[in-house]
Amino acid sequence: MCLTMVVSFLIAWTPYAVSCTWDILSDEDLPILATILPTMFAKASCMMNPIIYACCSKAFRQAAATSFRRLGCWSRQNAPTQVAPSDAVFTVRGSPAVRGSPTGQAFEMRVLPSTSAVTSV
Question: Residue 14 in contact with residue 26, Cβ under 8 Å?
Answer without folding.
Answer: no
